[in-house]
Write a structure and sequence with these properties.
It is a single chain. This protein is mostly beta strands. The strands form seven sheets. Strands 1-10-9-12-13-14-11 form a seven-stranded antiparallel sheet. A seven-stranded antiparallel sheet has the order 6-5-2-3-4-8-7. The radius of gyration is 24 Å and the shape is globular. A hairpin with a 4-residue loop joins strand 31 and strand 32. The protein is built from five helices and 34 strands.
């Protein structure tokens, strides 16, 4: 694929102001400094100071005990989450300041625990530091990069009393350079087999008898324990399927104990290069005899969390928007999602020079990109550059005029990066693994003989397993689902018929239209009426809910993103 620049239509800027997403550096550093001196724990409003130079009773959350120091090169995806709210007055007694761990799972996405997020305004008071193994001290980030938080999400069923469903995501305003690590997927059972070696990472307290915490990232190797073992240790507090515990039973003292507890809140438990757990809770001082650290089980929550990584849209509100072109005038338009309807259209100018447009975030920067094909067969990547507040247009490939289908359904290979699919003139489907910078690696053959379909669609996870899927609409109107496997070789499983749609002319899959964390589809009938089919995260006939009419007049458009 080439990298030469190409001309393209002039486009309006994003619906949101990029400057509004970015917090000044001085303010972010102020937040970090306030959190460093803070005296609270995530999920609570009072506690004892977390810094090692404090005095008094050690009522802070414990962290890794018995581990070893490690560098950022071994865990480049580690993130420090600092929160400081001075409550808008001169009094310090009601200030809130605390620290949590997190994991970079995409350039703008930080995975953490819900008890670090729910009830807090991270946009107004939070800061995320990446790229360093050392905690911030006296305004020194030790080579790290500090970012604000644009959006926050926690599991809607999180229970602060039982600490169940303890999963959350923070969206950064701009991508960080830290290398992401993927979450595991819903069908992962191997990582949770009893005895499997897992590694936990975190900063902080190194002893049950001292409130001194480590200024350097630490790690420890812990064996995964069975649900039966965890339940025997914790009783009803351990929720099977939602939680996993790991480690040897604590000895009752620092000696002989290697463990992590809720002080590493939000940090990752890693197996085989994937995040399988999020540090959730444990005993106050970490070393009570027989205790195990407890983690949120990522495989259980992959289905609801993955779409939050794939939530790029034009307006910036986390709901998938619509891009379309008027057939008669060749003018492009966008319509912002309102959940079950779309707002009035916004003109994007003359798009007569293209015959295909696909909405996707190829560089994972949180800004909606457009992949479009010119009349000469050139494939052009159009992406917004917030630094200059302008659009860049770059030719990725030439000679693609004969490709029957081109789409970007999401991450098909399990590396967190969006991939491209192309159906050639011989009806062979090819996968081009994304590089995360707008470009793609060499193609991998998926399958051949796809003559039954006049439309291939996909944007996100339709089945709730945390992997991107593919839809095929047959010439007779039947709709089929190919479940993604998360692997480049054998990218999809066998097809499953979802429904017969003889009345549907066009299928559109922009992503999560209503913002509930599940990928949706839009169906346009031969009469020009558009219907929203909300995703359920299930398979078979129940994959999509009952149709909701969006509006009419869509038969006058010939391209949908």
């Amino acid at each position: 694929m080439t990298s030469s620049a190409t001309a393209a239509p002039a486009l309006p800027g994003p619906a949101f102001e990029p400057a509004a997403r970015t917090v000044p550096q001085a303010e972010l550093e102020r937040r970090v400094a306030g959190a460093v001196a803070g005296d609270d724990k995530a999920g609570q409003s009072t506690g004892k100071a977390q810094r090692g130079d404090t005095t008094g009773a050690a009522a802070i959350d414990p962290k890794i005990i018995g581990g070893t120091e490690t560098g950022i090169s071994t865990a480049p995806w580690m993130a420090q989450l600092w929160y400081f709210d001075d409550r808008g007055n001169d009094a310090a007694g009601d200030d809130i300041g605390f620290f949590c761990g997190g994991t970079v799972i995409a350039p703008t996405k930080i995975l953490t625990a819900a008890h670090c997020v729910q009830g807090y305004n991270w946009n107004a008071n939070g800061a995320v530091v990446t790229g360093t193994a050392q905690l911030a001290t006296n305004g020194d980030l030790h080579g790290g990069t500090v970012s604000g938080v644009w959006r926050q999400w926690n599991h809607p069923s999180y229970n602060a009393v039982t600490i169940d469903n303890d999963m959350a995501l923070l969206t950064l305003p701009n991508p960080v350079s830290a290398k992401p690590i993927p979450m595991t997927t819903a069908d992962d059972t191997a990582s949770y087999r009893t005895g499997t070696s897992a590694k936990v990472y975190g900063w902080g307290r190194t002893s049950s008898t001292s409130d001194k915490i480590s200024d350097v990232l630490k790690t420890a190797t812990l064996p995964i324990r069975s649900d039966a073992t965890c339940a025997a240790a914790w009783g009803a507090d351990f929720v099977k399927g939602h939680m996993v515990c790991a480690g040897e039973p604590a000895t009752g003292s620092d000696e002989g104990t290697v463990t992590a507890c809720n002080g590493d809140s939000g940090g990752p438990l890693v197996v085989g290069g994937r995040v399988v757990g999020v540090v959730s809770w444990g005993v106050e001082d970490c070393v009570a005899r027989g205790a195990y650290g407890v983690f949120a089980k990522v495989s259980t929550f992959a289905g609801i969390t993955y779409p939050r990584v794939e939530d790029t849209d034009i307006s910036g509100d986390g709901r998938a928007d619509l891009w379309l072109r008027q057939a008669s005038s060749k003018v492009g338009y966008s319509q912002f999602s309102r959940g079950t309807s779309f707002a009035a259209r916004e003109a994007w100018g003359d798009w007569s020079g293209v015959n295909l447009v696909v909405q996707a975030d190829l560089d994972r920067d949180g800004y909606q990109d457009l992949l479009n094909r010119g009349l000469g067969g050139e494939l052009v990547w159009t992406h917004y550059q917030p630094s200059t507040q302008s659009w860049s247009h770059r030719t990725l490939a030439t000679g693609w005029g004969s490709r029957k289908q081109i789409l970007v359904p999401g991450d098909l290979t399990g590396d967190t990066l969006p991939d491209l699919l192309s159906l050639d003139s011989a009806n062979t489907l090819w996968l081009y693994p994304g590089r995360g910078n707008g470009y793609f690696a060499g193609r991998v053959r998926v399958t051949s003989g796809l003559t039954a379909y006049n439309q291939l669609r996909g944007h996100g996870d339709f089945t709730g397993d945390g992997k991107a899927d593919l839809l095929g609409r047959a010439w007779n109107g039947d709709l089929y689902l190919y479940r993604g496997t998360g692997k480049a070789t054998g990218a999809f499983g066998s097809r499953v018929k979802l429904r017969s749609w003889p009345e549907v002319k066009t299928v559109v899959s922009p992503g999560d239209v209503n913002g509930d964390g599940k990928a949706d589809v839009l169906a346009i009938t031969k009469y020009g009426n558009m219907y929203l089919y909300r995703g359920t995260g299930k398979t078979g006939s129940a994959t999509f809910a009952t149709a909701v009419k969006v509006g009419g007049g869509y038969g006058s458009y010939d391209i949908f993103g």
